[in-house]
Amino acid sequence: MRIAMIGGGYVGLVSGACLADIGHSVCVIETDTQRFAALCEGRIPIYEPGLDAIVARNTQAGRLRFNNHLVTELNGADAVFLAVGTPSRRGDGHADLTYVFSAAEQIAAALKQSTVLVTKSTVPVGTGRKLAARMAELRPDIRIDIASNPEFLREGSAIEDFMRPDRVVIGAETHHAREVLRRIYRPMALDEAALLFTGIESAELIKYSANAFMAMKISFINEIADLCEKVSANVLDVAHGMGLDQRIGSRFLTPGPGYGGSCFPKDTQALMRIAQEAGAPLRLVETVVGVNEARKAGMAGRIIARCGGSVRGKRIAVLGLTFKPGTDDMREAPSIDIVHRLIAEGAQVHAFDPVGMLQAQKLLPDTVHYSRDVHEAVEDADALVVLTEWDAFRALSPQWLRQTMRGTVVVDLRNIFDTQAMAKVGFAYHSIGRPAGKPRAADTTIHTGNRPVFAFADA
Fold first, then answer.
1. Which superfamily, per CATH, for 2-198?
2. Is 263 annotated as catalytic?
3. pLDDT, tens digit, for every residue of 226-283?
4. What architecture is the 209-430 domain classified under in CATH?
5. Which among 27, 228, 263, 307 is annotated as catalytic?
6. Does residue 237 sit in helix, strand or coil?
7. What does the pLDDT look like over 157-190, one tens digit per residue?
8. At a CB cut-off of 8 Å and minimum separation 6, what does 53 contact?
9. Residue ranges of domains in the chain
10. Backbone phi, then psi, for 430, in 5-degree steps?
11. Contact 80, 106 (CB under 8 A)
């Protein structure tokens, strides 16, 4: 099928490349001059593992192409996907739909035949209805079916998420729109049950609800981690025990400095505003937003306290800046609040991130020193702070760190190091929700006959 993808950002480029990879003819339309030039030259303007190979393979095969003009690419398209940005609107937290409606109006002006207009962007409930009314007003001469097909892509795992999804949500209320989207996703050999057909409003709300629920799990386990520190429990054991309950599940029960990224902060804020305007306020979501903001703000205070109450003049090594590993995304990353506060308190911050430093430079103070590698960042550091759990950091030897650093303070906000191993080499090691230097119960099991009766570990 012929598909036009409006927007060559994260969602548009990943979705367009994957749709081409399953056999469709896809044109990604990008009006940003620099991004368009990069795509035409074969350079990927975002960091996503595996995306460069898929783009190269499909451009070479002729299934994927790029353009910066709507008119030449919309005619003959079976479906036009809107994958433009919907950032939080300044002042009130609502999703800004400026780009959505601007693109829709350009599409309406360029179309010469009927098509299905699909919102891939995350949009508030009711946007589909407004788009339908606007398109009918602008182009009463042709049929434009509206559908919602929200994305559920995790940065760092987006290719896998698109090609092997838990579900594909399709909000459509005409037979034609449903059949077009069914045909688009059929080559993925999905179980029919993975295609969830709903009304447009339900599809729009599913995306927000899913993100808000995952954000709530993160904030919940973060608060449980704080409680664990007060009562000498281990949050990893608590999370493991919770996650074994199939009604709860283990995902998003990893404590840390607070959630960030392009989705959770923006979508929880937007859902909160949608609910307030509808007269059905979501008190849980409102609390989650408040808890997360307070947590990110409080993490710098935790680091300063572990450094004896002051970081003035101290060299602080920061490992990881992006909001999660596997991406260069710095949007709403906890590192932003933390590094700003450390600099304001007089610290000399030496930071290293495998892929995120270019983006970080746009958001962090000019006085941050960006190191070439881990060694340069931690050498002669008075304290080490772990902000992102990149695998390369997990492999660092406690002995090597102790020999390379000047000081002994390690504040691990991602729990990547073993508490006993760090204490053994002389570190004052502080993590999230774990008693310092104590083992956690896991891995080793005492058996009576064939039935395990108790589990513990010595590591």
1. NAD(P)-binding Rossmann-like Domain (3.40.50.720)
2. yes
3. 999 999 999 999 999 999 999 999 999 999 999 999 899 999 999 999 999 999 999 9
4. 3-Layer(aba) Sandwich (3.40)
5. 263
6. helix
7. 999 999 999 999 999 999 999 999 999 999 886 7
8. none
9. 2-198, 209-430
10. -125, 125
11. no
